[in-house]
Specification:
The complex is a heterodimer of chains A (110) and B (114). Chain A has 110 residues and is an all-beta fold. Chain A is built from no helices and 11 strands. In chain A, 0% of the residues lie in helices and 54% in strands. In chain A, β4 and β5 form a beta hairpin. Classes of the chains: A mainly beta (110), B mainly beta (114).
């Protein structure tokens, strides 16, 4: 089946740092999505991307839909403690099914 | 703001016993989904429903069944629980399909099979 490769698997960050994560696929997607999951909760949508090349921001978050439609990245600028959690990418294929990445866990360095 | 609730939130059960998880929505959304979440795997679709009594299998449907007798309720049943079904289960709802409408997820059910 289709798979998404999400990297890195985890990141240790210090407050104020910029963060970058990405997802790649062997298949083309029509929509790319980025979600965040806090401990004990379900994922919450951060950004949805609908067109190849699209660059969308949501506060300190910026995501892009790759030109090839096979990748996407998410950047977080000037990280703050509440940014910790697990970030998931998901792609919607031509059958409108969502394929999920395995997640990037963001951890604050002590 | 709970338009979607899952019950129970936690459950421990023994191998071989049947288990039913419930997802209840107040949004009148047509689509409902059951996912499982395991470390290193992201979210994997078990079953979904596109209307009352209309359901279909997802990527990891073996050992699971679902029922939807009312718009607001979507039940997931493990006929005979196994240790490999220890996981966190999430329900999601969506108003439609086609261009992505957005999923709203419940808070999850942590199931442990001993």
């Amino acid at each position: 089946g289709q798979q998404l490769n999400q990297s890195p698997q985890s990141m240790f960050i210090q407050e104020g740092e910029d963060v970058s994560m990405n997802c790649t696929s062997s298949s083309i997607f029509n929509t790319w999505l980025w979600y965040k999951q806090d401990p004990g909760e379900g994922p919450v949508l951060l950004i949805a991307l609908y067109k190849a090349g699209e660059l969308t921001s949501n506060g300190r978050l910026t995501a892009q839909f790759g030109i090839t439609r096979k990748d996407s990245f998410l950047n977080i600028s000037a990280s703050i403690p509440s940014d910790v959690g697990i970030y998931f990418c998901a792609g919607q294929d031509s059958n409108y099914q969502l394929i999920w990445g395995a997640g990037t866990k963001l951890i604050i360095k002590p | 703001d709970a338009g979607i609730t899952q019950s129970p939130r936690h459950k421990v059960t023994e191998t071989g016993t049947p288990v039913t998880l419930r997802c209840h929505q107040t949004e009148n959304h047509r689509y409902m989904y059951w996912y499982r979440q395991d470390p290193g795997h992201g979210l994997r679709l078990i079953h979904y429903s596109y209307g009352v009594k209309d359901t279909d299998k997802g990527e990891v449907s073996d050992g699971y069944s679902v029922s939807r007798s009312k718009t607001e309720d979507f039940l997931l049943t493990l006929e005979s629980a196994t240790s490999s079904q220890t996981s966190v289960y999430f329900c999601a709802i969506s108003p439609g399909t086609g261009r992505y409408y957005g999923y709203t997820f419940g808070s999850g059910t942590r199931l442990t099979v001993v």
